[in-house]
Specification:
Length: 401
């Protein structure tokens, strides 16, 4: 015969469990896969062969350098990081296939620093549905950190780079006010990335009570911008926001120079990279962009950033840049919060550590990062930079909305 007290206790426990169900339902499902006594498996998809490989390759290199450094020091609470990299070619379909493989076959614990707005957007639900955190995508698109309170799985999204919309708004507004510009225009990539830049442009124009003189777009992968640039010249634009990445930025300004069109050009964080002045040379002189960190040039970096820059150059025979520093930072940030989660690492404990408000400080002087249950974006201060004599120079380090 069963103990009546045991039966009562069981019924009481069941009742308590039923009462707790609504609260539990508000908590996201977080995976525990990819964690063994000796290893943490992370995945990423990058553009290693497509139109923005100038971002994907150095980001990947920076991530690998961080993984090697962490593992050489004993790992995270005794676990080594295993990083699996897939090439998306900046193709949303390939990003989806890569994410499915990483989640289902490789059993990753988290997706770290995936590359590109359209590619990240296409694959994001695969991760969230599987309970795999999407951490610090290399895109500033709002969907990478904004959360719907009615969708608990969206709490698995975190980002730490300046959002395109807010940073473009702050930088464009400042330049229009500072220089007395009257005929703002935009040329943007017709996808999720470009539309975020367009939103920032529209908000900035509204802030200064102006009307856009021209709004034009191009398809991802395009290389001919003659019609867009000709339209902006014909419309008398004195200020052009470029919702472009690297080669498109240089291509648009080269076309402008060819036809004698010389407005003030301004770009998003996607164009705030050393490749723009390197490829554009004199065409890029004077170009403005907003960014999240000072460019870590090897001959001017100091302290730990200098040591990192030298190690990067020695390892890859490439000069360090924003992209490689960002890739390094993303792994180091993951390690910070995974260590905080403790030796008994689980998905739930990692999420709690991420949302704890604990501060991560990098070696490159980016604003300190911290997250909470309701705020999964750490970047809200931006740097206005300009190309001078072939290098990016910080003009203003406290841009805010």
């Amino acid at each position: 015969m069963r103990n009546p007290f045991s039966i009562a206790s069981s019924l009481s426990a069941a009742a308590l469990a039923l009462v707790a169900l609504p609260a539990l339902a508000d908590e996201p499902k977080v995976t525990n896969q990819g964690v063994t006594p000796t290893e943490i498996v992370l995945g990423t998809h990058q553009d290693l062969s497509g139109p923005i490989k100038s971002w994907g390759v150095p980001v990947t290199n920076g991530m690998k350098l961080a993984v090697e450094e962490i593992n050489a020091a004993g790992g995270i609470n005794g676990r080594k990081i295993k990083l699996i990299v897939e090439d998306s070619g900046y193709d949303p379909k390939r990003a989806v296939l890569a994410s499915q493989k990483l989640v289902e076959k490789d059993k990753i614990f988290a997706m770290l620093a995936p590359m590109g707005s359209p590619t990240v957007l296409a694959a994001q639900d695969i991760l969230l549905d599987a309970g795999v955190p999407q951490l610090f995508p290399v895109t500033s698109a709002a969907f990478t950190y904004q959360m719907d309170p009615k969708k608990p799985q969206e709490r698995l999204k975190f980002n730490n780079v300046p959002p395109y919309t807010e940073s473009v708004r702050a930088g464009a507004r400042y330049l229009m006010q500072d220089k007395g510009l009257k005929k703002p225009c935009i040329m943007y990539q017709d996808d999720e990335f470009g539309k975020n830049v367009l939103d920032g442009f529209n908000q900035a124009v509204a802030d200064v009570k102006l009307t856009p003189a021209a709004v034009t777009s191009y398809k991802r992968g395009a290389s001919d911008f003659s019609s867009q640039v000709a339209k902006m010249k014909a419309d008398g634009c004195d200020f052009v926001v470029l919702g472009t990445i690297v080669r498109e930025t240089v291509g648009a300004m080269s076309e402008a120079k060819k036809i004698g069109f010389a407005p003030i050009f301004f770009g998003s964080t996607a164009a705030n990279v050393v490749e723009v002045p390197e490829l554009g040379k004199e065409v890029a002189e004077g170009f403005y962009a907003v960014g999240g960190m000072e460019i870590p040039y090897r001959d001017t970096a100091t302290g730990k950033a200098k040591d990192w820059a030298e190690a990067y150059y020695k390892t890859y025979k490439m000069e360090p840049n924003t992209q490689s520093a960002l890739g390094y930072d993303e792994v180091m940030m993951f390690a910070h919060y995974a260590k905080l989660a403790g030796k008994d690492l689980t998905g739930a404990k990692f999420l709690a550590a991420m949302e704890s408000g604990d501060v991560f400080k990098d070696i490159f002087g980016m604003p300190p990062a911290k997250f909470s249950k309701t705020d999964h974006l750490s970047a809200n201060v931006y740097l206005l930079q300009q190309v001078k004599n072939g290098r990016w120079v910080v003009l203003k380090s406290d841009l805010k909305n």
